[in-house]
Amino acid sequence: MCSRFFSFVGALLIGLMPFTIPVHAQEITKEQDSGGKWPNTISEYRELQQNPEAYPPFNLSNINLEATSTHPVVDNRIAALWQFDPEAEDTKKVVRSCTANHIEGKFWITARHCVTSEKDFLGYLEQSDGEVAGVENTYTISEHHDLALIKVGRGISAQTFDLPEEKIAIGKVLTLIGYGGSNDFSSIARVESVAHLDKFNVGFSTYYLDVLETVSLTDSRSCNGDSGGAVFAGNTIHAVHTAGAINFDCSPGEGKKMWHSAISPHTAWIHQIMSSENSTSVEEEQRAFEGFRSRYRIAEDQPSATFSSSLSPLSS
């Protein structure tokens, strides 16, 4: 599954890259308006939260998609995660980084290494139909668990994944799905569960706990893009994508290993966060407004598909 997905590459690249699919898409490089009146003040944003249908989705009709894959898909349960680039001199620059998956109401789940700064994360989610929601807050378990919850404001109407009650059995076939840096739709890979790892080393001093190891069942395999993408069977999301075997030239390969952060050991924590953090504070509202507003200020000279981070040795 090779594509021109961008890398979220860390300070120490150790050959861990997530999957992609062969697709070519025109970058969104200038401000485009769907015809609605987009909020420029917090009061206008509050009005949107009460009446989101008054703000039509971003217009993607002029985006030319030329897929070389036979399996591009659109899945209403996932969205692309965009964030302010922490390395850019222009603090208003936003980049697509990862994939997030809807699990309930205001809450989505992704990989922890996609959330560059939990305390002051600024960004938004966008689906392939152009619906957008600003990020209100993010929540993580620990630096050694590659899971993160994202809480968003209104703006996206999405279906949900079910959370797992137990670990997926070994030998089961699952689907890996996610966005890439230049795609405006998601793509999939079929994988088989081969091992549950208590600890997975990703660097000299970095490791993750509770990791599901899989292998690709077709030529669709790991490449640059898609950290945080759902690994699911039926409607149950069992893990989010963390890393894959080295594949610099995005060549196809059956039987290639991939690693994903398991969700079932942490369902109690997820339910606790969703229950206790369901309301929105004034600070969270302001943060979501800033993230939402950035979507409609994409400048002509702003690239949207190059991003490297020193925060993680994993590409996304």
Automatic annotation (TrEMBL):
Annotated signal sequence range: 1-25
Gene3D superfamilies tied to this protein: Trypsin-like serine proteases
GO molecular function (one): serine-type endopeptidase activity
Domain Peptidase S1: 98-275
Cited InterPro entries: Peptidase_S1_PA, Peptidase_S1_PA_chymotrypsin, Trypsin_dom
GO biological process annotation, one example: proteolysis
Keywords: Signal
PROSITE patterns: TRYPSIN_DOM
Protein name as it appears in the record: Peptidase S1 domain-containing protein
